[in-house]
């Protein structure tokens, strides 16, 4: 089982651990609901070192990534970060990633925990001249600092020279004398920052953030809290909502496919676009007590029409919520369905995503 560089620190905190894509990660540090509310009302700190970090550099790095990703990489300006998809020749999703444009001819991409080796091999298989591909996963740790007090915590640690960043911006900064790459991103629906930290300085920075954040209500947060937050925001999870049997068009990610260029999987996706997807991803909310589970069947008038891919109990909606793939004609908001929960069929309805939005006037999410 793989462990992040902060594993010993989590053991010292007596955090129960869970397995996620061959990694041991904290399930929670205190109470899952307390951590959830800390992120929405103050701040939460997550160890996301299980994600992969791959650097792409060289004179041909931009055209290389333009071919490897479905989006228009040529439009990603230096100092910005964007969501992206890597597909195979059949148009199926190998991974969904973040791509950080750090400097001229230099990018960093983050992969999902279980996909790092696969994506590294895939990129190297398709590598062209004047492209260097380097696995930085061991050299760098990665934190997510999320919530309305996230920036005040960073500012206190780094000093007034760190100006507030707009969403989807990435910059280099010194925090407590540690060189850190900061991206204005997150997985929670609240103001968020992700920090890329030299692995040998990770414990020191984690401790410094916790010490400063304590007076602002910051809590360390585990995987259980993170899963609820990402579900409410409508973010998809690789290995559950996305895998190599799903395409961007089925998953509602068509806006991240730029057909006015060549890329791996384009022909297959054009064919699917012309034919129309037989199934589509949809969000739903239970109308009675229960919590949907991955793998549960979705019904309409006793006919099975799909399968649940993710489900949680939503504190915001005060109900069970979930994601699943259904026959396309049932994917419209307002459609009444039933969800299999512990061998019972619970009434539910399809709803628009996300389940949670920041209130007007609040700090915008990533």
3D structure, described in words:
- A six-stranded mixed β-sheet has the order 11-12-13-10-4-14. It has a six-stranded antiparallel beta barrel with strand order 15-18-17-16-19-20.
- Helices cover 20% and strands 34% of the residues.
- It starts with a strand and ends in a 15-residue tail after the last strand.
- The relative contact order is 0.15.
- It has three domains: 2-51 and 138-232, 2-Layer Sandwich (Gyrase A, domain 2), CATH 3.30.1360.120; 52-135, 2-Layer Sandwich (Alpha-Beta Plaits); 278-351, Aminomethyltransferase beta-barrel domains (Elongation Factor Tu (Ef-tu), domain 3), CATH 2.40.30.
- It is an alpha+beta fold and 366 residues long.
- The protein has eight helices and 20 strands.
- Strand 17 and strand 18 (319-327) form a beta hairpin.
- The protein is globular and about 60 Å long.
- It has helices spanning 7-12, 32-41, 61-68, 116-125, 150-158, 202-213, 223-232, 266-275; strands spanning 2-3, 17-20, 23-26, 43-47, 52-57, 81-87, 93-103, 106-111, 132-135, 140-146, 170-175, 178-183, 192-198, 218-221, 279-286, 297-300, 303-314, 319-327, 336-341, 344-351.
Number of domains: 3
Low-confidence stretches: 360-366
The CATH first-level class of the largest domain comes to Alpha Beta
Q: Helix proportion of residues, in percent?
A: 10-25%
Beta-strand proportion: 25-35%
Largest sheet: 6 strands, mixed
Overall SS class: alpha+beta
CATH H level, superfamily name of the largest domain: Probable tRNA modification gtpase trme, domain 1
What's the total helix number?
8
Q: Please give the oligomerization state of what you see.
A: single chain
Q: Order of SSEs, N→C?
A: EHEEHEEHEEEHEEHEEEHEHHEEEEEE
CATH topology of the largest domain: Gyrase A, domain 2
Q: What form results from the Cα inertia axes?
A: globular
Strand order of the largest sheet: 11-12-13-10-4-14
CATH-scheme architecture of the largest domain: 2-Layer Sandwich
């Amino acid at each position: 089982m793989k462990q992040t560089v902060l594993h010993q620190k989590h053991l010292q905190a007596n955090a129960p651990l869970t397995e996620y894509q061959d990694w041991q990660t904290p399930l929670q540090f205190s109470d899952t609901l307390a951590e959830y509310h800390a992120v929405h009302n103050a701040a939460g700190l997550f160890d996301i070192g299980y994600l992969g970090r791959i650097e792409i550099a060289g004179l041909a790095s931009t055209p290389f990534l333009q071919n490897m990703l479905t989006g228009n990489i040529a439009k990603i300006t230096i100092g910005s970060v964007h969501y992206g998809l890597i597909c195979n020749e059949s148009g199926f999703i190998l991974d969904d990633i973040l791509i950080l444009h750090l400097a001229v001819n230099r990018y960093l991409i983050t992969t999902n925990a279980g996909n790092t080796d696969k994506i590294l091999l895939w990129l190297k298989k398709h590598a062209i001249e004047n492209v260097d591909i380097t696995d930085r996963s061991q050299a760098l740790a990665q934190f997510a600092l999320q919530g309305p007090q996230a920036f005040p915590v960073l500012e206190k640690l780094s000093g007034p020279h760190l100006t507030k960043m707009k969403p989807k911006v990435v910059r280099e900064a010194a925090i407590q004398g540690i060189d850190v790459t900061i991206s204005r991103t997150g997985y929670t629906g609240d103001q968020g920052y992700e920090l890329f930290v030299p692995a040998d300085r990770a414990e020191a920075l984690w401790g410094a953030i916790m010490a400063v954040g304590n007076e602002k209500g910051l809590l360390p947060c585990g995987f259980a809290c993170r899963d609820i937050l990402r579900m409410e925001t409508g973010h998809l999870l690789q290995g559950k909502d996305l895998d190599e049997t799903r395409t961007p068009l089925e998953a509602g990610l068509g806006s991240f496919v730029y057909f006015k260029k060549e890329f791996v999987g384009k022909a297959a996706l054009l064919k699917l676009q012309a034919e129309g997807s037989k199934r589509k991803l949809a969000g739903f909310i239970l109308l009675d007590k229960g919590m949907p589970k991955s793998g549960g069947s979705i019904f309409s008038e006793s006919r099975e029409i799909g399968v649940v891919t993710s489900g949680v109990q939503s504190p915001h909606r005060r109900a069970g919520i979930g994601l699943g793939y259904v026959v396309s004609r049932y994917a419209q908001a307002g459609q009444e369905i039933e969800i299999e929960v512990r061998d019972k069929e619970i009434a539910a309805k399809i709803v628009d995503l996300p389940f949670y939005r920041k209130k007007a006037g609040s700090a915008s999410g990533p």
